[in-house]
Amino acid sequence: DAMVIQNPRYQVTQFGKPVTLSCSQTLNHNVMYWYQQKSSQAPKLLFHYYDKDFNNEADTPDNFQSRRPNTSFCFLDIRSPGLGDAAMYLCATSTPGGSYNEQFFGPGTRLTVL
Amino acid sequence: QQQVKQSPQSLIVQKGGISIINCAYENTAFDYFPWYQQFPGKGPALLIAIRPDVSEKKEGRFTISFNKSAKQFSLHIMDSQPGDSATYFCAASLGETSGSRLTFGEGTQLTVNP
Hints:
Chain A is mostly beta strands. Chain A is 0% helix and 51% strand.
């Protein structure tokens, strides 16, 4: 089945230790998104890629970076995780079709910062 | 302009009852209104969506009612089941040429008692 895959599902890191989260997709969608979802809150868009074009949200901290080496893969790098960065990180994809509106989410990576 | 307000924050319904969740938006340029269902530890999954040229859309037990003039839309879950217990997010987006930005409501924690 075509899908959005996130690895790892659970990640524990130490305060200040860089961490990378991975997303891959078999949908061949040209847009990939990263969201941060804190406990009992709505997902918040961090940034997205349209093909290789990077689109950052204005309020996304510089501590968060992303890479998209090819259509299938996208990475979220947190350079110096703080306790406030503990959250679920969700990857999503979309494709033009009729529009880009419909987004398909992966299962998420739960990040714990010690 | 980009906010989507959702109510209630939590909802308890008896099995077989009707669950109703409401959302209001501000930006009249939004052109896509999805509802996402999220179980604990999982990514959001698209449940049903509507475009503003339609006043109602029904898929099985799930119905979206859309009131363009009032800038409101709602999700009705008929014959609610314990398996429907989850968090529901409404959202709104614009289909842009570089992808779309989903603006989520705050979420509703639905509990369906057996």
